[in-house]
Structure formats: structure tokens, C-alpha cells
Write a structure and sequence with these properties.
- By secondary structure, the protein is mainly α.
- It has helices spanning about 1-10, 10-15, 20-30, 35-59.
- It starts with a helix and ends with a helix.
């Protein structure tokens, strides 16, 4: 579910994982149509890092 959010609404993903400052920056980037693609890529990358950090913390 978070992957779909990362692609459609990248700024919202950052708020769901507890990074509000990055969410605001991503929202500003996403306001432009050209900035949507980099914002989505950034959100997907951050989501993968967040999942990896959770797995490492669980060990």
C-alpha cells in the first residue's frame, strides 16, 4: 500500500514514515509536474531504505 502512495502522492509517504520535513520538501517538488517523477523516485527509494532499517532493527 505504501508503494502506491509513494508513486501517486510521494509527499504523503514521508509523513506516514515519520519524516515531515522531507514531506514538505517533497510536496514543494511535486507541485511542479516535472518534479513529480523525481519526487516519486525519491519516495520509493526512501521507502525501501525505511523497510531495510526496520528489518535490521528487528534482528
Amino acid at each position: 500500500m505504501r508503494l502506491i502512495i509513494a508513486i501517486l502522492l510521494p509527499w504523503l509517504l514521508f509523513f506516514t514514515i515519520g519524516r515531515p520535513l522531507a514531506g514538505v520538501i517533497c510536496l514543494i517538488l511535486q507541485i511542479t509536474v516535472i518534479g513529480w517523477v523525481p519526487a516519486a523516485i525519491w519516495a520509493v527509494y526512501t521507502l525501501s531504505q525505511h523497510n531495510t532499517d526496520k528489518k535490521i532493527a528487528g534482528l
